[in-house]
Structures are given as C-alpha cells and as structure tokens.
Amino acid sequence: MASTNHIDLHVSQFKPSSNQKTLAIVLLAIGLITFAIGVMKSPERVWTSYLVAFFYFSCLGLGGLFFCGR
Amino acid sequence: MVGVCQKTGRSNDLLYSLDFLGGLVLLAGFKNLYTWADPQFLAENPLIAAKAGYLNTSSFIMRLIIFCGGWVLFKWFIIGNSIKQDQTGDANLTHKNVGLSIGFILFFSLSFSLFSIDLIMSLMPGWYSTIFGIYCFSGMFQATFAVLALMIIFLRSQGLVKGYLTEEHQHDVVKFMKGFTVFWAYIAFSQFMLIWYANIPEETEYYIMRSQNGWLGISFGLLIFRFIIPFLALLPRAWKRNNAHVTAVAFLILIMQYVDIYWMVYPNFFDGQVIFGFWEIGIFAGFTGIFLLGLFTFMQKFSLVPLRDPRIAETISHHVTY
C-alpha cells in the first residue's frame, strides 16, 4: 500500500483569467464568422477544412475519454 | 499512471460533447465532400456502386450518430461516476467504471476504426487500406499524449495540483508520447510498404497523389517532423523532464497531427493541389475556441483531481526508477 504521509498535497480550483476567456471567445467568433462567410463563398473549401478540424478535435476529445476509464 | 491520465483526461473530455454537435453540422456539408453520395457518380463508376451497401447516405448518417452518441453516453457515465465519487466518496463507483471501461474499449476499437474509414478513407472510395483505422488511432494517441503532457506542465507550473502531478508523472506520459511516436511510424511504414510492394493500381493511387503537386514535401515533412525529430528529441531521460523541451515537442506533434489529417484529406480536392489559407486557419481557430471554452468550463466547475478515488494514493507515490 502506498504511503502519502510525507508528500505535500494541495489542489486548487482553476480559474481562467479574463485574457484566457477572451482568447477562447475571440477564436470561436473567428471560426463562426469564417464558417458563415465560407459556406456562401467557398463551400467546398470550408467543408473540407471543417472535416479536418472536426476529425482533429474529435480525436483529442476521444483520446481524453479513453484515459478516463480504469 | 492510469490515475494521472484520468486526472488530466477527464478535463480534456468535456470537449467531446461539444464536438459531437460539430458532427451533426458536418452532415449539412456532407454532399460537398463525398463523391459516393452523388447518384450520377455511382452510375458512372460501377466499382464504387458495388460498395453502396456500406457507402450510402442513410447508413453513413446512422453510423455517425451511433458512434458519436455511444461515445457521449460512455463519457456521460464514466465521467459522471468520477464526479459523483468526488462528492460521495463511494468506492463502488470505481468498480462500476471498470465495467464501463471494458465496454468502452470494445466499442471504441470498432467504432473509431469505422469512423476513420467513413470520414477520411471514403473520400477516395475506390481506395482501401485494411490498416487505415489503426493508422488514425496511432496518430490520435500520439496527439492525446501531447495534450496530456501540455496539461500536466501547465497545471504544475500554476501550482494547482501540488503533489498530485509530479515530474515522475510527466516523465511517464512523455515516455508514452515517444512510444506512440514510434508506433505511428511503424503503422505508417507498414501501410506504405505493403502498398508499394504489392503495386496494385487501385492502392498505389493514394501514394501517387501524395507524391506530386507539392505533396511530396509534405509527405517527407511528416516522416521528419512527426517521427524522426520527436523520437530523437524524446530519447534522453533529462529532456523528458525539461518543461520547455517537452512543450516544444508536444506542440510539434499537435501541429503534425493537423498536417497528417490535412495530408489524408486535401489531395482528394482542388485538383490535387496543395492549398492552405484563411479558411483553414479560421475554421481551426473556431474549433480551438470551442476546445478552450470546454476545457476552462470543466476545470473551473470540477476538481482537477479525483480526490476520493480509492486508488489515488497509488498514483501519488509513483516513481520512475529508470
């Protein structure tokens, strides 16, 4: 059985800074605007890049889930 | 090891629910991507038409919904149990998650392979590789370990998980990252070598397309930046524990994961020309925004560490002895 007697343990709650939140929202807004314009102007290009990004982030999300099991 | 992955992985995972919505959006542009969805194309290509039993619109949509829905359900129960355990301390929830995890591995192995075939391989419906699902799986795991390494470095640098995540945990995650770097190269070479050796026109077409119109440089770039450089850069023990070094390699792997998917998708469009610009950057930025918002929301709302997990003590005292 492992012992944790001599280890200093501490967990804090994560609070994103306003800059971090703003960055995420700005990136999301850029994506939405690009998508909205692109679907009308260059649909093949936008759907192709959408497929690449969707598959990329699906992989990251799914990989995270894989490591949540025991 | 499992504990540390669980700690960081469960934060990473909320993204999937948001990403699932992205899958539904993809269905709207489905006709722009898949030639086999066009009846006229099928009429002109009897060999592709022979695959219509699998490659047809309704079964594609059904499979996408079943796969993504199944992953969301597993996420809901596995992460839900972990969060519930944070509040109740009920050790039985760990045993429940063991059963769920066994089910998930079985579901995942089949569903992810078919997901890769449906979304990526079927862009070129005449081509097939029996190792394609594993190729995508190896790249996915290499990238996932890169994200885990980055999250460990970030959480440690902020002092948010003192004692729960140490240099020892980081070292092990980076070893896995290196291991999957080799695994990716092994699978990529296996796919290439078998197709090259058999020299069947329906199969070689895939690599021929990726050896002309500027794609050859990207093909070699994958070999160099996705395998050779990360492999050499992660060999020395001390470098696996150097935050700046690991961060740089992890970002390189994440960039190359994008390049790899781009390399699988784009040669099928735009007359096989290399094309990259505002649209690709903008769409990727949007997904990154969703990713970060999901991550921040989860990390802000729930504990970064499953504190009442009965196995938490084992993960804290982890030491790398070599």
Q: How would you characterize this protein structure?
A:
The complex is a heterodimer of chains A (70) and B (322). Helices cover 69% and strands 3% of the residues of chain A. Chain A contains 2 helices and 1 strand; from the N terminus they run βαα. Chain A has helices spanning 18-41, 43-66; one strand at residues 10-11. In chain A, α1 (18-41) packs across α2. The two termini of chain A are 18 Å apart. Chain B has 322 residues and is mostly helical. Chain B folds into 2 domains: 1-126, no CATH class; 129-274. The model of chain B has no long low-confidence stretch (mean pLDDT 89). Chains A and B meet through β1, α1 and α2 of A and α1, α2, α6, α7 and α8 of B.
Q: Proportion of β residues of chain B?
A: under 5%
Oligomeric state of the chains in view: heterodimer
Overall tally of structural domains of chain B: 2
Mean pLDDT of chain B: 89
What is the terminal-to-terminal distance of chain B?
15 Å
Q: Please, how many helices of chain B?
A: 15
Helix-strand sequence of chain B? HHHHHHHHEHHHHHHH
Helical stretch tally of chain A:
2
Q: Count the domains of chain A.
A: 1
Low-pLDDT stretches of chain B: none
Q: Indicate the percent of residues in helices of chain B.
A: over 70%
The chain-level mean pLDDT of chain A equals 87
By DSSP, the count of extended strands of chain B is 1
Biggest pleated sheet of chain B? none
User: Which series of helices and strands of chain A comes N to C?
Assistant: EHH
Biggest interface found: A-B, 60 and 89 residues
General form of chain A? elongated
- Estimate percent helicity of chain A: 55-70%
Q: What percent strand of chain A?
A: under 5%
Unreliable stretches of chain A, pLDDT < 50, 5 or more residues? Answer: none
